[in-house]
Amino acid sequence: MESTVAPGEVLMSQAIQPAHADSRGELSAGQLLKWMDTTACLAAEKHAGISCVTASMDDIRFEDTARIGQIITIRAKVTRAFSTSMEIGIKVIVQDKFTGDQKLLCVAFSTFVAKPVGKEKVHLKPVLLQTEQEQAEHDLASERREVRLQHESAFSNIMKESSRFSDPVYNEEEGTATTMGTSVQSIELVLPPHANHHGNTFGGQIMAWMETVATISASRLCHGHPFLKSVDMFKFRGPSTVGDRLVFNAIVNNTFQNSVEVGVRVEAFDCQEWAEGKGRHINSAFLIYHAVDDQEELITFPRIQPISKDDFRRYQGAIARRRIRLGRKYVTSHKKEVPLSAQWDISKKESLSNTNVEALKNLASKCGWEITTTLEKIKIYTLEEQDAISVKVEKQVGSPAHMAYHLLSDLTNRPLWDPHYISCEVIDQVSEDDQIYYITCAVVNGDKPKDFVVLMSRRKPLKDDNTYTVALMSVMLPSVPPSPQYIRSQVICAGFLIQAVDSSSCTVAYLNQMSDSILPYFAGNIGGWSKSIEEAAASCIKFIENATHDGLKSVL
């Protein structure tokens, strides 16, 4: 395993022993969190030169598992220093000592705060950047910090939005379950071995205890083997010390197909507070689990049926956090895009066209679409699959389906209603129902503008169907090479499915399986800190309805 330590980096290596493992022989997530917190703290103190304390650990993603006998290496390094706080990037690699094979086990980001000595004010020195990767992480750290600061307001806005409608997902659905039996309470007495080198309860130990009660809670719902997949954030609200009693309360909040969210709250009591029953809220977290049965098959969780007002609050809160989590993915895992566009070949135009259309229909028919936003004429859904995120925007339009089809299949109309599009021109009229377009899009996040070369394939309804289809996917065309003025980007699978409601109205569904280049345009909306999708959808409805009312159908 590569053991070179970069300047400013702290490296911890551990051989996984039985004492570190769970009942299945896999490394306990709680044990790993303790090691990660220790490594991150030492990286923070190496940069600051003074004592540091954990403020939070967030965007924790478990990519794989590690077993007894394997070796893990934890790398932690300050990505950016602000005035008194630092972001530390953490990466965990697991190695099989017999084969030498290495895999990514876990990634996370921690925020540490420097503790001033006496009355002396702290002002941290900037991070010395030596590579392009360090510069990229330094820039993204600022974006991640903005997302953290926006979290509470975004969450509040989504909860207010959701309170305006009753969620249609769980009403009268068969096979629903309640969370009553998933409540878990546990207590720990903080002893000297649980304290860090500052005398406070070790943050990693608190996280490990939280993971234990959350795992028990998840297991009561799935009746299988739950394993931790991600954690939104461990947020440390206050310290605790040796002698405190820590009370942990965990309960399932909601389920999403193959995942379940468990909320954990921690309260600390000193001796007097314990007698009076008045504790201090010192930590909260929301942990996301998957689960397998005895045959190692992934378990599909039952739908949750909220009963009490508190159930409904937690149920809706989990939906809001999932939405924010999906939006944060772009900021936390920003990576260079691998070109996947098909090479355009005129001799294979029918095959490419059919592939384009079928991909869109297959995306629409997938299970697992979760509603995130409901407005008067607009519903927004998301679909999370492994590392892929897709969006569906469903619009009720006061226009005949055939009119919407003609307007939306002419992409040169797109800049008239979509603020993301700057220009769109036909560069190859392949056939009556297939055109290749060159598209330029607006600047996002300070990057250069993006451009696309896209095949549009459209289909009218068949005899046994009432769906009009407008499918989009990127193609590579030698006559339109990438330009240094733009970032050449790709559309994996996108388009419109249009169905008639009656002779004067229709439903228009826009779908997009988001590539890394597309995600920046959607991330803020998915995460709740932007309204760009709703605004574009409302503009699309207005454009189609106005075109109909203005009699533009006469020229089609």
TrEMBL record:
CDD domains: BFIT_BACH. Pfam families: 4HBT (PF03061), START (PF01852). Coiled coil: none annotated. The keyword Iron-sulfur does not apply. Keywords: Fatty acid metabolism, Hydrolase, Lipid metabolism, Repeat, Serine esterase. It comes from the Eukaryota. Transmembrane segments: none annotated. Residues 368-513 form the START domain. It catalyses: butanoyl-CoA + H2O = butanoate + CoA + H(+). The keyword Repeat applies. Residues 6-118, 180-295 form the HotDog ACOT-type domain. Pathway: Lipid metabolism; fatty acid metabolism. This is Acetyl-coenzyme A thioesterase. The lineage of its organism: Eukaryota, Metazoa, Chordata, Craniata, Vertebrata.
